[in-house]
Amino acid sequence: MTSPTAAPAKSRLFPMRPHDPNEPGRTASSLELFFDLVFVVAVSIAAAELHDAFTEAHITDGLIAYSVVFFGIWWAWMNFTWFATSFATDDWLYRILTIVQMGGVLVLAAGIEPVFADRDFTVLVLSYVVMRVAMVAQWLRASRSAGPSRRATQIYAGGIATVQVLWLVQLLLTGPVSSVALFLLIAAEIAIPIVAERQGTTPWHPHHITERYGLFTLILLGESLLASANAIIEALHDDQALGPLISIAVLTLVVTAALWWMYFWPPHHRAISSFGSSLRYGYVHYFVFAAAGALSAGVEVEIDVLTHHSKLGEVTASFTVTVPIAIFVLGIWWIALRGTADRVVNAVIPLAVVLVLLDPILPIPFAITAVVMTLVVAVLVLRPPLPQQAIRRTLLEVVRES
């Protein structure tokens, strides 16, 4: 039985005070998990369109379109994630503004196909602006109770609002000027957190933020598992390519599991101990996430080649799989593994990246990638992450030697 004062509390607003960055037991909320699910739709459509572009041998155009589309997906997700780790409060207004952003993601997903087909960014930009305007409202609300972070929240709100106006102006441009403006506005979006955080750091929670990145990585790796399942489905309908298709399914599972193992091998919260390291961690994840999404497209391309539905040759098709794997591994090594691994691991992983990139021109494409990734996992099992004390000693030795 609820008390008389409990019911009104559900309908009133709460101040958006900064969270304690050292709060114990901080985990992702159900709203954050719900928010992530919407991005599954957008990522899946972007990967499907990239697959279609590869199949038609429109590699350069497909990669450019995918890079721009994925920036919109990644940047909307990342901005909300870093905001939520600092200022989230579970009241009705916060929920509604978050759901508005989710609606924007669904509209963005609908605008992906026109970007790939006709270079029409209208729906993509309009939906993106809707999501960003909702974030402006969140930052303005947070600024009222932000304390030492007030200046940063105001810069976030003002910077995001200004750039959204410019995005709408960009829709009026045509030709090369429109393309130049597009990339300038992407640069402006990326610059906003750098400027804002230098004026008053927001209180991000290392364990919470890295958990959020890990959960999104699982979503993206799940797309590759879906591609593996598609290979089995195709095999059941194509007796002539039964063996190769089953092999692709198995190899995809092995590689995806290895990527998962590598990603979650190091304690990620150690990788964002400073402003510079948090920027590196957040921004390099664009390449990690985009590579994970592109991997599923590459596996689908391999399936098309085996069933004679692709204009690509076998070697080129293999590169659509191995390049995303190499980018994913190199990115995670750079931002998370490198600082907690010993010399053996830090030598093995870059070597593995080179071997994966060379795989398509070797006699047994893709299978070698699976073997290499399995061997990397074996090394990680035998050589666990260095404890925090050992890392500090290593850093001190480096400083003394220099």
UniProtKB/TrEMBL annotation:
TM helices/strands, residue ranges: 33-51, 63-80, 92-112, 121-140, 216-233, 245-263, 283-303, 315-337, 349-382
Pfam families reported for this sequence: LtrA
UniProtKB keywords: Membrane, Transmembrane, Transmembrane helix
Keyword Transferase included in the entry's annotation: no
Disordered: annotated segments: 1-25
InterPro entries: Low_temperature_requirement_A
PANTHER family hit by this protein: BLL5714 PROTEIN
The name this protein goes by in its record: Low temperature requirement protein LtrA
Lineage, top ranks: Bacteria, Bacillati, Actinomycetota, Actinomycetes, Propionibacteriales
